[in-house]
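Appendix B: complex inputs.
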Amino acid sequence: MNIGQASNASGISTKMIRYYDEIGLVRPASRTDSNYREYDQREINELRFIKRARSLGFSMEEITQLLSLWRDRERPSRVVKDIADRHIADLEARIVEMQAMAGTLRHLSHCCAGDDRPDCPILADLTAGKEPTQPAKAPARTRARYS
Amino acid sequence: MNIGQASNASGISTKMIRYYDEIGLVRPASRTDSNYREYDQREINELRFIKRARSLGFSMEEITQLLSLWRDRERPSRVVKDIADRHIADLEARIVEMQAMAGTLRHLSHCCAGDDRPDCPILADLTAGKEPTQPAKAPARTRARYS
DNA sequence: GGTGGACCTTCCCATGATGGGAGGGTCAAG
DNA sequence: CTTGACCCTCCCATCATGGGAAGGTCCACC
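Resulting structure:
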């Protein structure tokens, strides 16, 4: 299978397949005399593995680990589970964060007339923005020239 | 106020403040004789506006629009609301997507023993992919038709 | 045999928002 | 004057992805 067929079989663009080759994630089984990449079923399966993992939101770094575990028939499932659980926690944290954003914005949008008048609680909120809570990294200021 | 003080007052790194200058988003009011950027209260307020908008997940492009609306006292609030509503829809779509990922992964993780044995439903799922091939108990010899 | 077009190759560039760091100038306190 | 915190510009890197140029290869059709 050449790269185009590998792309069709895996759903990954040729650009990305070449990239995975370049970074050493999935290497073609061989090259033809004319330097075309040749993939066999094993690599196709790996590409599909990556496709699926990406669709579940794993980063390329996590996928590198998962792929290496996948190739290792002796891996303890605990290691895989740990990676998945960390990713779940990461997803959940980002969901919470985005829900907070959406909630705030829904409230502001709800309060905004959305007509031709300029008064806008959304802009008002952005203007009022919270003071940056300054944890202050530097204590002693030899040069406190600010007011 | 020089750039460091503007950074402290806005919560935005000096790197990013220089970047905003470079792309024309927030220009310093002036420069000193020694070419230091000088910000006054108006720019500080704009930087804080940006900080707050970023914390609500707006992209820089959206912020560019919002900032321009903020500067225009005649803007119709409708335009602001439209931007916010589109952003809310975007956030919600991403939340739904990530919830689906997290849900799938929670299920897989739940089914994974997470011990020293190699059997792992998580890797099995990634292997199975989402192709028209059977889901699970059908180890058919999907062979041939490639060469 | 020739030709056209679909394919393949490598190399370079761009994204968005951010940070790191080098190399050098400026400012105020000691 | 020295010191060191601060500022300047310029370049590079990220992460995953795509665009495109310049050139080589394959194959089916005439």
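Chain B touches chain A through 65 residues (CB under 8 Å).
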